Amino acid sequence: MRRKLQRKFRLRGFTLKVDALEEAAAFLDRFPDAEDDALDLLLDELDKEPLKSSILDRDAVRRVVSLLVEAEEAVDAASPAATSARSALRVVDSFVVPRFHYDPIKKVFYEHTGRLSFHGEAGDKAALYRDRYQVLLQRLARDKYFSRPAFETVMTEFDSCEMTSIQSLIGCTGRRWIMGVISQLEERQFYLEDLTGAVPIDLSNAISLKPLPCYLHVNTCGFPPLEDREASLSLLMGLDFFGGGVIPTEETLRLSSLENKAVNDMFVILSDVWLDNPEAVEKLGVVLDGYESVEVVPSLFVLMGNFCSQPCNLAFNSFEELRLQFGKLGEMIAARTRLKEHSRFLFIPGPDDTGPSKALPRCALPKYLIEELQKHIPNAIFVSNPCR
């Protein structure tokens, strides 16, 4: 059973610690006649969690297990119709999106494992452009027109576009291709620079650059070529830059199959849901009633702020009332049985909602405001603005 658990979790891009494995096994022991359905349900719920890492510990698994209260409800919720609509949904909070760096020596991407600070240091701006340059350079180096041919006779000097570093220009003659960044290191003087050096350029007629001790003439200037999505994914080995962890080929095929089958599926996006405005709440009820009666209910409702008609700043003193209004919204959703069972509700704060500041990204809505709503809709999702 434990080998099966580990294999299933790996297929979804998760790695289980020992204590997390024990927690998952204990959950499956509750359903001796429906272990596969219970396991699929557990994985689906984990997919929807804003996890900080694809390596799961006991707390991450226990948090999801606590939402699956009764065995009968767990088995019912794992039916193919519900699973197909919900298992492909994963929401990633901005504050847990991983950062990746490119290793030019090993030619692979690796995840930054150190602690990230809210406030940048002096060298962070330079590191930002350096990392961006490395990402573009590695893509350009894979392009067939900018890579060294396997046999020198395949391309002539004029056909080959192999990239040359600025440092390698000294003493060279003939045509060279350079990838660099145009910057202004001195007042009224532009430079072309890469990671090895910089040369001054004359942009008065945009056709010549004049480094010392040699002269170069620019024939062509352009941007790195585009790359097909399939080509990028094949080289990234399933790595998801959006924060979804490592997605194996089997999972990619499963998601593609779900996408092709979900021809009637839909997302409903609503903004400026003013809970303190009776007319807005009434119209929201009309919208929910309309989707409650359709044949296939939406799989996701995205409710975006502002959730109050007044800015929730230091002068705002109605937080208790806003908390109760969220609770009434939860009652309104819970009264629509089909929506509660088959739809997910995603809440994203607006620019004037409660939060530490108005700077982006904004934190998710504070727990104090949403506790009453979660009593009625325990699987509601609250994330940052923006989110993925």
Q: Report on the biggest sheet.
A: 5 strands, antiparallel
Mean pLDDT: 80
What's the helical proportion of residues? 25-40%
Large-scale geometry: globular
Over the alpha carbons, how many angstroms does the gyration radius reach?
27 Å
What is the end-to-end distance?
Answer: 34 Å
Estimated share of beta-strand residues: 5-15%
H and E string: HEHHEHHHEEHEEEEEHEEHEHEHHEHE
Structural class: alpha/beta
Please, how many helices?
13
> Any low-confidence stretches, pLDDT <50, length ≥5?
69-85, 211-215
Q: What is the β-strand count?
A: 15
* Major β-sheet strand ordering: 5-6-7-8-9
Describe the structure.
- The protein is α/β, with parallel strands linked by helices and 388 residues long.
- The chain has 13 helices and 15 strands.
- The protein has helices spanning 2-11, 18-28, 35-47, 58-65, 71-77, 80-86, 124-142, 229-236, 249-261, 278-292, 319-334, 337-342, 367-376; strands at 15-16, 55-56, 100-103, 108-111, 181-186, 189-193, 198-202, 208-209, 216-217, 239-240, 245-246, 267-270, 300-304, 344-348, 381-382.
- It has a five-stranded antiparallel beta sheet, with no helix packed on it. A four-stranded parallel beta sheet has the order 12-13-14-15. The protein has a two-stranded parallel sheet with strand order 1-2.
- Helix 2 (18-28) runs parallel beside helix 4 and helix 11 (319-334) runs parallel beside helix 13.
- It starts with a helix and ends in a 6-residue tail after the last strand.
